[in-house]
Amino acid sequence: MKKTGKYIICCILDLGFSACLFFCLVAGAPQPGSGRLGGYVFCALGFSLLTGGLLTGALCHIHTLQKKVEQLQECLKNRTEG
How far is CA 82 from the centre of its chain? Predict the structure, then answer.
């Protein structure tokens, strides 16, 4: 249950980051009627979601690796003591 809460919080933060990035990108969109607005918005949406997902994935991976390093350090510490 504890992991599920962390993942839910992570997803909420990821979606918030993606939404902020999307709105910042769309603020500089071309003027309506130029024919490029739809493509621009679609690309901005994809970029913001991918960036947020990659950021969240990288942070989760770093956290997992940090736990593994701590476990290995504990194992080495027990080996040298025993």
Answer: 41
